[in-house]
């Protein structure tokens, strides 16, 4: 998902129809930087706080899910 977003931003092909009014005011490069920062953040504290399964296992499923989108 992040790599697809990076490709769209690199090509200058961001479709503003898919953005909120607030996000339309932010340059696509900045939105991409925010997305990359959130995607790469360590989710361990979140998972531990909410009693979710092993973070490594969920990271695997998150990767697997994005691959299944085609």
Instruction: Figure out the total of helices.
Output: 5
Poorly predicted spans: none
Shape, please?
elongated
In which range does the helix fraction lie?
55-70%
- Rg, Å, rounded: 15 Å
Distance between the termini: 10 Å
Largest sheet: none
Q: What is the mean predicted local confidence, pLDDT?
A: 80
Q: What is the element string, with H for helices and E for strands?
A: HHHHH
Assembly type:
single chain
Structural class: mainly alpha
The tally of strands reads 0
> Which range does the strand content fall in?
under 5%
Report on the architecture of this protein:
By secondary structure, the chain is an all-alpha fold. Helices cover 66% and strands 0% of the residues. The protein has five helices and no strands. Helix 1 packs antiparallel against helix 3.
